[in-house]
Predict the 3D structure of the following.
Amino acid sequence: MKISYVMIVLNGMPYIKANLEGIYESAHEIIIVEGAEQQGMFSANPDGSSNDGTVEFIKAFPDPDKKIKLVQGKWPFKLDMQNHAVEIATGDYIWLVDSDEIYKKEDIKKITQMLINDPTIYQINVPLLHFWKGYNWILDTTVVARASANRIFKLQKPCYFTTHRPPTMFYPNLQKETVRKSIKRRQRNLLNVIDYKVLEKQGIYIYHYSYVLEKQVWQKMNLYKTYGWEKPWKMDLLDWYHNCFMKWSPETRVEIEKKYTIIPCAEGSNTKPFVGTHPTQMKTIMEGTQ
């Protein structure tokens, strides 16, 4: 089973280290598409590249089997970055990984075995644990859209992503063009899609660290602001950053969570203590940031 991991990244430090350490052994190839989309240039170098040492780290990362393919540039949209990776990928499956999404190595083996056992699988959605303001609290939400992520797709060319949020793969030889616009709600009837609850029952998760570090959350809120998402979300994202994220603590959580949704696009979300263990490759990062 050949897995083509695909990472689109801008300013992925420090979690990209744990990410690559977790996936390297199981990878057929790791395609890293680096750089800013047009609306994210405010957080990039003038050439569109990461300004936090991400590129330098990738180039220095041990790659004895020559699995890592680094592609750099300025990009119109994140969707273009994903589809460029699809064009050059040579595996049996595309496995999307964000730089701050970490897997336990044993969970990767379990998912890979699922694909080996059932080659009719076209997509696997993976449950998420969203860590919040550190490594001891996670998002507690009833919002299904924030509970899982579309991450693994059969690579059966010609195929391409039609959307980035959520990632949605389109297979022209299997799906009619007239169905394309409604693919997200009808895909389960067309292809073999594994629901995230199947993995959740086995205790398999993505460990997602995007709401841990102040600089990453600040970049995220400013990017969402440039997307124009404040109006549909009916909120001021920088106010949320200063008065929700920055002021939240275990002592203030009850008061703050009465006023703010903990994840901007997830109505009704709040926090709860994390009970469990982190991926082992997170150890050095956690020790260095606590």
